[in-house]
Amino acid sequence: MKKITVLDSDILSKMKMRAVKSAIRKLQPETFIRQCMDYNLQRFKDSLDMLKHHPWIVNLCIKWAASSIGDKRATKVGDTRTLNKILQQTYDVMPYIPVGLKSADSIDFFFRNNLYQQLMYQTSSTGHYISREAFIFGRLDPHHKLSRRFFELTNLSVERFVMLSITFTFLISSKKNVIKEVTADMFSILTPYISREEIFYFLDSLSISYEDLPEFCKRKTTENPLKEYFLPSPFFETPLIKYNDKFLLLHTQLTLASLQTFIYDLLRRDDPEKFMDSFGSIFENLVKDIFDESKIRYIDEQSLKKHLPQENKVVDFLIPHEAANIFIDAKGVEIHERGMVTLSHSEISGRIKNSVLKTIEQAHAVNREILNSPKLITDFKSESYILCITYKNLMLGNGTFLEKSYATDGVSKIRKNHDDAYQIPDSHIFCISIEEFEYLMSSCKEHGRQPYEVLRYAVEMNRTPSQTVFLFIQHLEKFFGQVTKSEMIRKTGLDLLERMTENIPGLKQNVNLVNE
After folding, report:
1. Helix, strand, or coil here: 326?
2. Are 422 and 371 spatial neighbours (Cβ–Cβ below 8 Å)?
3. Of residues 6, 17, 57, 16, the one with CA closest to residue 36
4. Which fold has domain 271-485?
């Protein structure tokens, strides 16, 4: 029998995907979409049971079906058997999609692609995520350009939006009832403190109208099976569908994941360049606040610049310790869609050139000066680490993944420019999210540990294949048993909730999300 090559597999997956899309296009879209949503919103035993129903497959079918809205040829009304057959047919395409399992040096891509496909359905602590957004954006002056732009886009202040997000999270997280349709009346406990008009503004900002759905889904559809199946669902942007006077839920967990970073995502989508012009310094201040709360000694960028040659590259922060130095850079960036789900080294490397790779270069430039002139800043340490902190997880793991799979040429180029004497090993480089950094510093404070101890543990674990993990938070959970969250961020959510309960009788016993 002829061995199936990657090229053959790619061709087969495209043929099979087209066949599924063709079958879906024959179905009456409104009925089929409703059936998919009912399948998504059935009562599951637990989170694992929900994941076993492959919501990423169901939401993909919804996207394809919505593209046919308005097509007069789409008239066939299917039943439950039709739905199950289509879902199975859609799922059966996956084994043919090249995902990185054909060769040993591509296995890292397989793990990364699966994380992008499924991680949004596994996140928790929505209340704390929302508190973090309130801490970041709610503290800005109302006249700050990001505050003004958010109001222009939603007709709501950040504070109002966060209050409604907390309430909405409680409503759809209830284990008593599965919410399929959302109306303004469900928020009646908030009025008159929050007006009915504001409630509609909130729901509108989370939704896409049924009339706009076909064009949105066509725009978000490609002919590339890998991208179609593994990129995060586009409904992450608009987790509700506005249909007449009701707002239809696509998937509970998808909606919760969307709420967690909605303010950041909306502002960034609106104008990425303008957003980053403002957000870069805001993000650095957030990292500094987390440092200050932890009471762990650090040297900031301004202090480094005072002691280093004027032309020398610097990192944002340095944690000096008698056992190890940690070089930290805050890159409030997000990887471009092309660099998310891919099997191409260049698609990732090109997208992280000005973030992760730049951090590695800057850290080595500072470490060189420490080696040459230790009296200027701190003593040189043979054990050193690099942390590149981004707002969202770039799914890059540690530096070993970078060097071996994702950015081999980029890392090699940096190493050629620096002497072996002060080079920091690939295994000592970590790309982590702001969430993971917060948990690292807060947990160190809670347990009286130093960050280098956790990083040393992570390096040791990663040496054994069975102990290697892709997400840094998994190392944190194993090291500490249970991670600790930032109290100042948690308090931001609690203060907002307290303000609401003071003005809304009966709310306190119903909403308690920020303690998650």
Report:
1. strand
2. yes
3. 57
4. Restriction Endonuclease (3.40.91)
- Run of H or E residues at 201: helix 196-205
Q: How far is CA 387 from CA 44, 124, 316, 352, 424, in A?
A: 39, 24, 11, 14, 11
Q: Looking at the predicted structure, is the pLDDT value of residue 1 above 50?
A: no
Which residues touch 151 (CB under 8 Å, ≥6 apart)? 157
Pairing mode, if any, of strands 240-243 and 207-209? Answer: parallel
CB-based contacts of 450: which residues, under 8 Å, 6+ apart? 296, 321, 323, 444
Which two tokens mark 169?
Answer: 């999270």
Average pLDDT over residues 278-302: 96
pLDDT at 207 exceeding the cut of 80 = yes
DSSP conformation letters of 144-175? SHHHHHHHHHHSS-HHHHHHHHHHHHHHHH-S
Q: What DSSP element (H or E) covers 299?
A: strand 299-300
Residue 219, SS3 per DSSP: helix
Residues 440-475 pLDDT 10s: 999 999 999 999 999 999 999 988 877 888 899 999
Q: Are 388 and 432 in contact (CB under 8 A)?
A: yes
pLDDT tens sequence across 43-61: 999 999 999 999 999 999 9
- Orientation angle between helical segments 80-91 and 6-25, nearest 10 degrees: 160
Phi, psi of 8 (to 5 degrees): -60, -45
Amino acid residing at 312: N
Q: How far apart are CA 209 and CA 69, in angstroms?
A: 12
Angle, CA 276 vertex, CA 270 and CA 282 arms, to 5°: 115
Q: How far, in whole angstroms, is CA 461 from its chain's centroid?
A: 24
pTM over 0.85: yes
CB contact set of 210 (below 8 Å; sequence gap of 6+): 69, 241, 242, 243
* CA–CA separation, 248 and 207 (whole Å): 9
Per the structure block, which two tokens stand in for 254? 């998808």
Question: At residue 374, what are phi and psi to the nearest 5 degrees?
Answer: -60, -25
Task: Give span(s): CATH 3.40.91, the chain.
Answer: 271-485
Find out whether 133 and 264 touch, Cβ atoms under 8 Å.
Answer: yes
What pLDDT, in 10s, does the model give residues 210-241? Answer: 999 999 999 999 999 999 999 999 999 999 99
Banded pLDDT at 104 (limits 50, 70, 90): low
Counting DSSP H helices and E strands in the chain, the numbers are 24, 9
Question: Residue 425 gets which letter from DSSP?
Answer: P
β-partners of residue 389 are 330, 432
How distant is the alpha carbon of residue 14 from its chain centre? 28
DSSP class of residue 402? I
Residue 430 near residue 390 (C-beta atoms within 8 A): no
**Structural tokens at position 166:** 């907390």
N residues, the chain? 516
CA 40 to chain centre: 21
